[in-house]
Amino acid sequence: MHARQSPVEHNWVFPFYFYAIDLDELEQLNRTVRGFGYNHWSPVSIRDEDYLRGSGSFRERLGEFIDTSEIDRIVLVTVARFMAKVFKPVSFYYGLRKDGSPACIVAEVNNTFGERHLYVMDGGESFPLECRHAKQFHVSPFNDMDGHYEFTFSKPGDDMSIDIKLIRNGETVMDAAMWGKGAALTTSNLWKTVLRHPFTASLTKPRIFLQATVLFYKKRLPVFKKPQPSNSMTFKG
């Protein structure tokens, strides 16, 4: 769901599916789930090159940005490749302690200009977790760099939700959310999903461009030029 509140109202909702995967289970899933691959071609796949930067395991590369000493598990919430690389606006890394509480959460945001940015947020004692972070990354040409985000994360389980609000001068400019009910990542469930929704994974970017066309031509929203990246947490995707 994406709801723009100001300076014009514009709401849209589209279906999609996402994966919530314990990073320590990637190798096992690669061996046991037919149709799922890790770091090689498969109908559905996760590849290191699509995330973060540098080399090494996910945990090693995340260690450049966060303290992993108190983290027991890392759950990646993302849109995997389907047949080919697909555009994923945002992925989330849940750094969990042994008791399941959130030590931190990292949001990895991609824009349509081939850049990505990491928002690193402190954890808390329990879920739901509420976080705040200054806006540092150009995503939409209809928003400038002013304001901050307010995130609300549910527990990464069978019934998940994530809400993101862009706040500017005390006003909610935009509200985006994703939610869903989970099913175990098995061969059967994987193929049921991709055969039932064969085009969903590849439609995100076209849907974004369609809504941008409506905002520009029909609702006459002004466009802000993309600034040159200047934050150390922004790098080429």
Task: Please characterize this protein's 3D structure.
This protein is an alpha+beta fold and 237 residues long. It has one domain. It has 4 helices and 15 strands. The strands form 3 sheets. Strands 2-1-14-13-12-11 form a 6-stranded antiparallel sheet, with no helix packed on it. Strands 3-6-8-9-10-15 form a 6-stranded antiparallel sheet, with no helix packed on it. It has a 3-stranded mixed sheet with strand order 4-5-7. A hairpin with a 5-residue loop joins strand 1 and strand 2. The mean pLDDT is 95.
The main sheet orders its strands as 2-1-14-13-12-11
Based on CA atoms alone, the radius of gyration comes out at 18 Å
Any idea what the shape is?
A: globular
CA distance, first residue to last residue: 24 Å
Q: Main sheet? A: 6 strands, antiparallel
Number of strands: 15
Helix and strand element order: EEEHEEHEEEEEEEEEHHE
